[in-house]
Amino acid sequence: MTLFRIENLRKSFGGLEVIRGVSLEVAQGQRLALIGPNGAGKTTVFNLINGYYRPDEGRILLDGQDLVPMAPRLRIRHGLARSFQNIRLIPHLTVEENVLLGAHIHAGGMLAQALPLFMGRGRKLREQARGLLEDAGLTAHRGALAGSLAYGLRKRVEVVRALMARPRLLLLDEPCAGLNTQERGVLMEELQRIAASGVTMMVVEHDMHFVGGLCDRAIVLNFGEKIAEGTPAEVARDPAVIEAYLGHEPEKYAHA
Ligand SMILES: Nc1ncnc2c1ncn2[C@@H]1O[C@H](COP(=O)(O)OP(=O)(O)OP(=O)(O)O)[C@@H](O)[C@H]1O
Ligand SMILES: [Mg+2]
C-alpha cells in the first residue's frame, strides 16, 4: 500500500527552477533514500513536504490526503515528523524536557494553545517520553542537560523527539552528518528498530554505506530532476548517477 506520494512537484526560487517535476512513492513501512549531489534539491523536497515552502505545482499526498493546502502544524498532526538538521535541542533543558517538546510541536506549535492539553495529558506525555527514551537505550541520559551530551547522543535524542509526534512518515535529513563510524552504527540500529515498529521513512543521506544498510529503495536527484530509482546498490552503479556525482567533488562521496 502506498502511504506517501509526490506528483509532479515543481519549485522555483527567483527565476531558477530547483525542483523540476519530481514524482515519487513510498509504500507503508518502506525506507526510501533521497540522494544526489550537493544542491540537487533534496532538502528543498523536505521543505516542500513539511510546508516550509509552497510548491508552484504538484501534489503531496499522505494517505491519500493532499498536504499542500495544510499549515505545517496540521501536517504534523496528520502524521508527518522531521528530525531537523538546524533546529537543535535546547541546550539548557534536560533530554526528557527536549523530548517532551516534541509533543508540544505535535500539539500545535503554540504553547498557549498546547497548555491546556499539556495539563490534562502531562503525566501521560511524560510516560510516553520516558518510554521512547528507554526504547532508544537513552534512559541513563534522561536528566542530563541536552547541551552537555556528545554530538552523537544529541542526534539520537533528536530522533526520539520526532517520535513524540507518533509519526507515520519520518523525514531524516542527513542523520549521519558529523557522526563517526561507531556512532553511525548505533544510529543505524536505532533507525532499524524504529522502522521495524512500523514507521515509514524518507532519508536524505550522503553515506551510501548507511543508505544501503537502512533503505530498501533510493531515488537520485540531480539539478532538481529524478535521474534514477532502484535499490541502493542498483542506483550506486547506474552510469547516470556516477556521472552526476563525478561532476560534484567526488572526494566527498568516497562511500558511494
Ligand atoms: N530559499 C531559497 N532561495 C533560493 N534558492 C534556494 C533556496 N533554497 C534552496 N535553494 C537552491 O535550491 C537548490 C537546491 O538546494 P537544496 O538545499 O535543496 O540542495 P540539497 O540537495 O539539499 O544539497 P546538500 O546536499 O548540499 O544539502 C540549490 O541551488 C539552492 O541554492
Ligand atoms: Mg540538503
Automatic annotation (TrEMBL):
MF terms (GO), sorted A to Z: ATP binding; ATP hydrolysis activity
Signal peptide (residue range): none
ABC transporter domain span: 4-248
CDD domains assigned: ABC_Mj1267_LivG_branched
Domain of life: Bacteria
Key word Transport present: yes
GO CC, any one term: plasma membrane
Keyword tags: ATP-binding, Nucleotide-binding, Transport
Keyword Nucleotide-binding appears in the UniProt entry: yes
Pfam families reported in the protein's UniProt record: ABC_tran (PF00005), BCA_ABC_TP_C (PF12399)
Protein name according to UniProt: ABC transporter ATP-binding protein
Lineage of source species: Bacteria, Pseudomonadati, Pseudomonadota, Alphaproteobacteria, Acetobacterales
